[in-house]
Amino acid sequence: MKKYLIVIFVFSLSILFSSSNTGEVYICLGKYAKKYHLVNTCRGLNNCKAEINNVTLENAKRKGRTLCGWED
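Above: the chain's sequence. Below: its structure in token form.
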């Protein structure tokens, strides 16, 4: 059981770091959206009623987006 949890943890970290290393993040295109997300499965994106796009981190920051509170 312990080995299983370690494998899941390492896999989760690899997903997190692989998406942030590419310089791409996810943003909701909703009118009032203000955050960017490192993974498209972030729970902060659950309320997005508009399209979700991947953009560069630089572009997201240029648009005034800040990191989602669930991912910092």
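The chain has a mean pLDDT of 83.
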